[in-house]
Amino acid sequence: MRVPLSWLREYVEVDSDASPQDVLDAFVRVGFEDEDIHGGDITGPVVVGEVLERIPEPQKNGKTINWCQVRVAPDGETAADGGDAIHGIVCGAHNFEVGDKVVVTLPGAVLPGNFAISPRKTYGHVSEGMMASSRELGISDDHDGIIVLGNLGIDAEVGTPALPLLGLDDIAVEVNVTPDRGYAMSMRGLAREYGHATGAAFADPAMRPELDEIIRAATASTPDEVRVPVTIADELAVRDEPLSEVFAGFVVTGVDGNRATPGWMKSRLRLAGIRSLGLLIDITNYVMLELGQPIHGYDLDALRGGITVRRATAGETLKTLDDQTRKLSDEDILITDDRGPIGIAGVMGGAETELSADTTNVFIESANFAPISIARTARRHKLPSEASRRFARSVDPAVATKAAARVAELMVELAGGTIAPAGVVVGEPAARAAIALDPALPARLMGIDYAREELVEALTATGCTVGEQDGAFAVVPPSWRHDLTDDVDLVEEIGRLAGFDRIPSIVPQASSGRGFTRAQELRRKLSDVLAATGNTEVITYPFVTEAANKCFGAVAGEAVESIKLANALDATQGWLRRSLLPGLTEAAHRNVSRGMTDVAVFEIGRVFRPETGRRYGVDELPPVAARPSDTVLAELNASLPPQPYWVAAVMVGNRTDKQPGMAAAAYGWQDALELVDRIALATAANLKVRQGEHPAFHPGRCGEVFVVDAAGNEHAIGFAGELHPDVAADRDLPRVVAAVELDADALIAHANRHVIAGVIAGVPAATQDLSLVVAQDVPAAEVLDAVRAGAGELLEHIHLVDDYRGAGLDDDQKSLTFALRFRATDRTLTAAEATEAKEAGAAVAKDRFGAQIRA
C-alpha cells in the first residue's frame, strides 16, 4: 500500500521535518514492512510559463517544429535558472497556442529517469529548456502533447513553481500489508496505525458529521420512491457468510463526466499506483484508497429495473469492463438487473453500465461482500484488482454507507451533481461478540508485566471496547478488525502497540542431558559431509508425477504403490514422492537449462513409502475451529503412510574444470560410490556395495548399497551409480548423471553406536600388492572380504586398485589387484611375515571363489 504523505497529514499529525524514511520507520514499529519510497525524483527549476510567440518551422525530414518565445518569469525579474525572463524554446508538440500557460523545465532541472535539462542547440536554435508533457514528468504514459495548464483548470502567475500545482512535490512511502490486516489497505487504516506508532492525534475520515448528513439526505425517500431497489439473495457463501452484509446504493444526478480530474487527486492516485481514468471513476478509486471500501459506479440511465445480488447460474456469461466475455461459475456472486448480470461483485463491473464522459446520472454501489467467495472468483477469472484484494482481506462493513456518502459528496463538489433522495441501504453490520481476556495472559505470553491500565489503553487504542466480566476483560473488537477472534490475537495487539522492542530476548536453557537426538546428529553429519564434498543442499517439492514414482520409487520387480493427493495443486503432479531423485533431477535440469552445466545437489528429506495393500487417509477431517481430541489425533497419525528420511545426491557435468596442465574431470559412477564411502565414514556405518538393478539406473553402472548391523546381517538401503541414459534424456539432462539415494533412517538405525579410535602405531608398516584372477561375475567386494578374513590381525588396510580384463585372461575372467598394508603393534614386521599373511588371505579367496594368484 502506497501512502502519499500529503494525504496522510490530513488525518494524522506528521512532524513537518519528518523524512519519508522517518515515516516508514514509524510503520515498522507497529509491525509493517517498509518497501519503497516513490516520488521526489524531479529536482531543479520547473515553472509556469506563458507562450508569447510560436513560429512553425518545417524541416527537411518532413517534421514541423515550433520555435517559441516563452515568458518564464515576471517582466523585469530573473528566471529561476538565473537567465532572462523570456526563454527561446524548441517544441515538437502542436497542441498549444500563443497565450497558453504551460509547464517549463528550465536548465538545471532533472526529470524522472535522471533526464537532465540544459541549453542545447537543435534545429538551428539554442533551446533554453523544455515545455513538458505528462509522460516526461512521470504523470502518465500519455504523450499527445505538452501540458496546457488551462485544460486542467489551473491558472497561476508566470514563474510560479509548477510542481506543487501538479501535485509533483508530494512523496509516497510504500508498506507491505499482510493478508490478515485488510483494514490497513486504506489511508484511514494506515493513518490510525501511524498514530499508534507516534502517539500523534488521529482524525477518522469516516466519522465526519457531514457524511451522516449526506446519508440522511440520500436515503430520505420512502421505499416506493427508491430509484433502484436492491435485493440480497438469501444464499449463503462458504462458512455461512452472507453474500452481502451491507449494500448501500446512492443516486447522484446531473453530473458532468467531462470535467477534468483535479491535479491534487490525480497526483495522489498516481502516487498510490492507480492511473487516472476520468473524473467519475477517479472519485470512486480515491474513496476506495481513502476509506478502504471498494466502490462501483453505474450509469444510472443504463440500468434496467432494480438490482439483485445473487449467485451465478450455469451457462451465464458477462462482458466485463476489459471487453472480455466471461463464463460464470455458480460460486460467483453477481450484481444483476432485470436483463441479467451487470457485474461480478467485488471484482469487475460489466461493460453495459460503465461510467463514461457522457454519464449524467450515477448509481453508487458500496457493499460488503463475502471475502472467501471474492478471493475464489478473482483467482478463477484471473482478475486480481484493487477491489478484490481488499474484499478478500475483509472490508469494514460499518464503512460502506460512509464511503457511498463520500463518493456522493465528491461528485457534487467536483462533477457538479446533485444528491437525489432516492438511495437505499440494505442490511447492517453484524454485532461482534466479546472476547474474554485473562489480564494475566499477556504477561505469561510476552514475558512483560503490563499494568492493567496499560492493557486497557492498548486495547482501546486498537478500537476495542473493553469491559469486565467475572474477573476477566470482555473485549469487543472494532468492526474493521476481522483478524481479532480470540484472546491470543488481543495479546499480540497489546505487544504490538506497547512495543515489540520491550519483549525480552531470553535463550531457553536445555534440560540436563538434552540436545540433538542420535538421529538428528547423524543427519546433521550427513548434511555436513555432503556439503563439504562440493554438493549444494536444496529443498524440492514432495509432489511428483505417477510416472516418476514408478521410475525412481521402486526396484526391479517390486510393485509400486503411491499416495495420491485428493486436492493436488497440480493435477499432473498429484502423487507424494517415493524418492528424492525426481526433485533433484528437476533441480539439476533447471540449472543446466540456465547455463549452469556443472551441478551437484543433494537433499535430506522425507519420502512416502506406503505398505502394500493398506488404505491411508480418513473419510472425514475434524473441524478446524477446535483442537481434536487425543483419540482423533491418534487416528489421523495412524492414517498416514510411513515417511522415512532419505538422503540423495545428483551430480552432472564436470567435477573439476579444465585447467592449465589438467583436463576436465567429469562426474561418473565413481563419484557416486565415493559419496557412499564418505557417508559411511560420517555415520560410522559398515556399508557394502554390490552390483544391483534399478529401473532408473544404468544396468551396468548401478550398485546396491547395504548396511551391515552389529550381528553381521545385511540390510539393503539404496543405490548408487549412474542414471539410465534414457531416464537422463527424458529429464533433459546430459547422458551421464551420477546419483546416490539411501534410506537415511535405516542407515542410522544400523550404524555403529560406538566408534573406538585405533592406536597410532610407532612402528613402520609393510606394504604388498595382491593380484587375484577370478570369474567376472564374482563381486570385487566379496573377494576383498575374503582376503581381509584370511590375512588376519596383521592386515591394517586393504583397498582395490585395479580391475583388469583383457589380454592374458580368458573372456570370462578378470584380475583384481589389492593394495595391502600390514603392521604389528609391538614390532617391525619382516617381509616374510607380511607375505605369509597375504598368502593366507589369497588362500581364503581361493577357497571361496577359486581365485588364483596372478603372476
Walk me through the structure.
The structure is a single chain. The protein is an alpha+beta fold. It folds into 6 domains: 2-30 and 172-198, no CATH class; 46-166, OB fold (Dihydrolipoamide Acetyltransferase, E2P) (Beta Barrel), CATH 2.40.50.140; 205-426, Phenylalanyl-tRNA Synthetase, Chain B, domain 3 (3-Layer(bba) Sandwich), CATH 3.50.40.10; 435-502, Phenylalanyl-tRNA Synthetase, Chain B, domain 1 (2-Layer Sandwich); 518-609 and 644-750, 2-Layer Sandwich (BirA Bifunctional Protein, domain 2), CATH 3.30.930.10; 766-853, Ferrodoxin-fold anticodon-binding domain (Alpha-Beta Plaits, 2-Layer Sandwich), CATH 3.30.70. It is built from 22 helices and 41 strands. A 7-stranded mixed sheet has the order 27-30-31-37-36-35-34, sandwiched between helices. The chain has a 5-stranded antiparallel sheet with strand order 5-4-3-6-11, with no helix packed on it. Helix 6 packs across helix 7 (279-291), helix 12 (452-462) crosses helix 13 and helix 14 (518-532) packs across helix 20. 39% of the residues are buried.
